[in-house]
Amino acid sequence: MATIEVTNSVAPGGTRAGLGPFASAGVPSSGYLNGIAEKGASVVDTTNGKHYTNTGTKAATVWTVTGTQV
Fold it and tell me: Based on the number of CB atoms within 10 Å of its own CB, is 36 exposed (0-12), middle (13-18) or buried (19 or more)?
């Protein structure tokens, strides 16, 4: 299992902190940040340099790789 790091991030204006960006050492698994990351939130995989977006819900996160990163 990957080591997980959650950053203390706040969106511009000090609102919607549940949008991240958050960090994960490795690919974030479904359920990672349940109850914290809102739909549309961002996670950066600091090991592989990829970006993920929560396409699930705040209660049940699903992380989908963004773009065509290799």
Answer: middle
